[in-house]
Design a protein that fits this description.
432 residues, mainly alpha
């Protein structure tokens, strides 16, 4: 029964992920052709900052709630409502931080004053994104994947419609307004997603004022898992946040022009890597379906079944990643031209494609550790990976090989993360 449920959940998420990814690629095509390379480059420069604050806003509550709900020994209503005050307080603090730091981030760190307004817009998006993902965590824990799929698909449709309707008008005024709207459109789409997810909540649940007061037991359970897991994700996002700062700082010091840095970073981060990550909808679906299954069986001491599920997840990820990798390696120019209407980035894509086959198994490995409750180990892998990435990025850039140093650091991080995650999984699944 568990096996059938896992496969059913994975298939639903894969189908939904495929539809969402198709819509996402359509959005990417429309967005790129509307705002151009300069707009894409600016958005790519801002996105690591967006990801960092989003990681802090969510506090890993989606994964935490999913794990606790899946264990079937907790009051799910109390878990969800005890999380809401945490989300509210955290997001208020983060919004204030963004308001007071956005100028420093854009001018002093990113060295691009035009990033100020889009970074400021991130503050408005945070609470909506956090609440949406919290609700998704509940449904993942219940292994009800259809609410997530429906909300995500409609969310993408809303985002596409908004971009088509408003970006051309905003471009007539200023490119910065258009890029800012690309951030704010997340507010609209996530609000829509929240409304849809609420419709799928149990009808027989009565909500009282007292429900919004955090319960000590549930709060303790949530924070004991959320804080270490957030630590590991936060470390990863800090590394991602530092990426454009290190790149612009080192390359500027070496004499590269700001136009070169902005354009090449935009090509890699805005064109090449998103294309190579297309199979991520599959690996994310597998990972999300794995979390409740692994959590339940590992906590019950069923190591053979846990090992089997993890192996299946890795195998499925590789099977979908291999043909995509071959395709992008053989036809990089055709792929870039089809999606972005450009051939810039062919050499980058051809070089990275074979290594991204291993990137596709990184997510299931990390999700497996989290599902097993190994937040400490996940945190260790994250900070060591970020440290290795940041050091290797700095070193490779000083070789004076332009953006190729960025690509080399990507490869180093992929292999290091897989190696460290594999060591911990072997320790707890085979040697314990």
């Amino acid at each position: 029964m568990n096996k059938e449920k896992f496969i059913k959940s994975a298939i639903i998420l894969m189908i939904g992920g495929a539809i969402t990814k198709l819509l996402g690629m359509t959005i990417k095509i429309v967005q790129t052709r509307l705002v151009g390379l300069e707009g894409v480059a600016l958005y790519s420069l801002i996105f690591p900052t967006f990801s960092l604050f989003m990681s802090m806003a969510q506090l890993s509550l989606p994964t935490t709630i999913s794990k606790l709900v899946s264990e079937e020994r907790n009051n799910n209503k109390k878990l969800v409502f005890s999380s809401l005050p945490i989300v509210f307080i955290t997001n208020i603090i983060l919004m204030m931080i963004i308001v007071f730091s956005s100028k420093t981030i854009s001018i002093s760190l990113l060295r691009e004053p035009r990033c100020y307004l889009p970074i400021l817009a991130i503050a408005l998006v945070l609470p909506f994104e956090a609440l949406s993902n919290l609700l998704r965590g509940y449904f993942f824990g219940k292994e009800r994947m259809i609410p997530h799929v429906i909300s995500h698909v409609i969310e993408q449709v809303i985002r596409l419609i908004c971009i088509i309707l408003f970006i051309p008008t905003l471009l007539e005024v200023n490119l910065i307004y258009a890029v800012t709207f690309l951030i704010l459109v997340n507010l609209i789409s996530e609000f829509t997603s929240i409304l849809i997810l609420l419709l799928f909540l149990p009808r027989n649940v009565q909500i009282r004022k007292s429900d919004f007061i955090p319960k000590q037991k549930e709060l303790s359970q949530i924070l004991s898992l959320a804080i270490p897991t957030t630590g590991s994700r936060l470390v990863g996002n800090i590394g991602y946040f530092l990426e454009p700062i290190i790149i612009t700082g080192v390359l500027t010091f070496l004499g590269y022009s700001n136009n070169y840095i902005l354009e090449e970073y935009g090509i890699i981060s805005g064109f090449v890597i998103p294309l190579l990550l297309i199979p991520s909808f599959f690996t994310n679906a597998v990972s999300q379906a794995l979390v409740p299954v692994i959590s339940r069986n590992y906590s019950n001491g069923d190591l053979p079944y846990t090992r089997k599920k993890i192996k299946q997840g890795l195998l499925f990820s590789l099977l979908i990643g291999l043909p995509v990798t071959i395709f992008f390696f053989l036809l990089p120019g055709w792929s870039l031209n089809l999606v972005y209407h450009t051939t810039k980035g062919i050499s980058y894509m051809k070089f990275l494609a074979p290594f991204f086959l291993f990137q596709y198994i990184e997510t299931p490995l990390s999700a497996s550790l989290q599902a097993m409750g190994k937040a400490k180990e996940t945190f260790i892998v994250s900070w060591q990976s970020v440290l290795v990435r940041s050091i290797s990025l700095t070193v490779f850039l000083f070789f004076n090989i332009g953006m190729w140093g960025f690509l080399f650091s990507e490869i180093v991080q992929i292999f290091f993360t897989i190696y460290k995650s594999g060591i911990y999984l072997r320790k707890y699944l085979y040697e314990s």
